[in-house]
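2024-03-11 09:14:02 DEBUG pipeline.ingest accepted 1 chain
2024-03-11 09:14:02 DEBUG pipeline.ingest length=235
2024-03-11 09:14:03 DEBUG pipeline.predict start
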Amino acid sequence: MLTVTELTKKYNKVLANDHVSLTLNAGEIGVLLGPNGAGKSTAIKSIIGLLRFSGAVNIDGHPNKSTAAKRVLGYVPEIPAPYELLTVEEHAEFIIRAYKLDSSSHEYAEELMKRLELYDIRTKLGKELSKGMQQKVSLLCALLPRPKMILLDEPLVGLDPHAIKELKIILAELRDQGAAILVSTHMIDSVEGLWDQAFIMVKGKIVATRSREEEQANGGQSLADLFFQITEGEA
């Protein structure tokens, strides 16, 4: 579903991503782990097509900037940016019309709003929402088209415990339905038990990968132990 090959991104002389390669299959949740400044957000923005880079990114067999790739892609940015003068339910309606979704999407939008605790504030404007509520609106807009590939950049920051729990349930459901999901985070505990593939990034490079099967067969070393072994060694 997602293939990243030799992705390299420079900001002037600063090498933010250094030949990053990874593969994520349909029906898998991948986590891109790393300390702050490791280059995770740059990689996510490059994959989504917001930044120029060298290398190649393919989504569902299509180049990441192609219309075919964008049709199957959902994205939750690190910093939510809802339309200030649209209500919560108008954000949903905008997505339904933009993607030309069928009539059942109104029911799905209502379901998502209820699960994310947005339904009672559905008539509030984007500018009236707290950061946590704005993050939920970003999730609503990303998930509503039922994308095959979902990228989430630090999606749990600002969410309350109930929303975190519900989002994990939703992501697990989408994985079971065949979606590929890549979550960028520095909060290892937040993805415990959720991931199938883990990619550890340090100083712009993927320095280690780990599958769930490898963790179970690796003598009990947890992903957290591996992460701190690598990052503290770098420090």
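2024-03-11 09:14:41 DEBUG pipeline.report Residues 81-146 form one domain.
2024-03-11 09:14:41 DEBUG pipeline.predict end
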